[in-house]
Design brief:
197 residues, single chain, mainly alpha, globular
């Protein structure tokens, strides 16, 4: 079961990276950096001997969330593109939630297991209040993701009815898949970390 959950976490994260390749040039680099960083952090957290401690990954992910949001905000002021703010906000929230889950998954006096999930089940996530905070944060994130997907679907429908070019509709579709994949990946990670064994 744990292996299925690992796949359920890493496969959607990989899909998110693939979606970033097809994003508009203004978003492509940011999407690739964010997607690859999340994928590496998750994969490293599952490794028998991680390259970096969870706290270092968490700090890197939070710094990445802050920097990509700031850069996107500046570029949106100079060259506004529809939907960029939603995707950037979604990525920043995913980075921060993933950072929290990495720290929670490695919580405990020792880390004697190869997996975040097993580590969380043996040591807990810092007590019930912290687990409750993670569940609430994940629920809010999934809710935001659902709204962002719904807005993307509406924008794509409007683009089709307004006979927008195929490239715009394809980019909207990629954005929808990107948000859904990132939400799925982060949600599975939250389930792995917060559910008791």
């Amino acid at each position: 079961m744990i292996e299925i959950m690992h796949g359920g976490m890493l496969v959607p994260a990989s899909v998110s990276v693939c979606c970033a390749v097809g994003a508009p040039r203004a978003q492509r680099v940011q999407g690739l950096i964010v997607g690859v960083a999340m994928l590496l952090a998750m994969a490293d957290g599952l490794a028998a001997s991680p390259m970096l401690p969870a706290l270092v990954w968490a700090a890197l992910l939070v710094l990445l969330a802050i920097s990509t949001s700031a850069i996107s905000s500046v570029s949106q002021r100079h060259n506004p593109l529809p939907g960029v703010t939603t995707v950037t906000t979604h990525r920043a929230l995913a980075l921060i939630l993933t950072a929290s889950l990495l720290v929670a998954g490695s919580a405990g006096p020792t880390r004697s297991t190869a997996s975040i999930a097993v580590g969380a089940h043996h040591h807990g996530v810092g007590g019930e209040p912290f687990a409750l905070v993670l569940v609430v944060a994940t629920t809010l994130y999934v809710g935001y993701s659902a709204v962002a997907i719904w807005l993307g679907v509406r924008s794509r429908s409007n683009a089709r009815s307004n006979r927008a070019d195929g490239r715009q509709r394809r980019r909207l579709s990629l954005g929808i898949v990107d948000i859904a994949a990132m939400a799925a990946s982060t949600s599975v990670m939250a389930i792995m970390v917060t559910l008791p064994s």
